[in-house]
Amino acid sequence: MATSSRKTAQPPRAGRSSAVQAEIRQSRPFRSAAQEATVALMRTASLLGRVMERMVEPHGLSLAQYNALRIVRGAGTGGIPTLAIRERMIAEGTTITRLLDKLEEAGLIRRERALPDRRQVFCIATDAGRTLLDELDPQVDDLDEELVGMLDAEQLDQLIAMLDQIRVGNAERGAPRSAAATSTAPAGRG
Description:
Layout: H1 19-23, H2 33-56, H3 63-74, E1 80-81, H4 82-88, H5 96-105, E2 109-113, E3 121-125, H6 127-147, H7 153-170, H8 177-184
Antiparallel strand pairs: 1-3, 2-3
Helix pairs in contact: 2-6, 3-5
């Protein structure tokens, strides 16, 4: 029998109404501090995603397209295989092929088949894609600072460490479906 690394559930904090509880207009207390933390984390991620989305939308990009374009630019002039982009995306969601189709139609990337294995497709940022990101970079950098500007350096370091711990603790079960299916598939099946 496998041992669990789960800690005992922390009861909700008595006599206290949290900000997230008020935001979602929940009159009853959370069942546990863990539930409150999970809801607060998901609510915060959603909020920050909307703010970032509003930054890139006027430039004709979704947040996922912006993320993919940054990944492609980061790969340099040699490009990056389509599947490697999918593995590096912040959020699992839109199929990578459709997302890259839109970036290619907008003239922000180009795709080239690899030689000798023509099954592999490499994505390369175009001049227009690099120029757009060069324009967005300082705006996004400023927004990053604003989004966490209420935290001092020590709090920011603590937040990063805690988020790292949560992601590592949930990495296997939260892996993209293709990776999770591969890691749990019986031997001899794929």
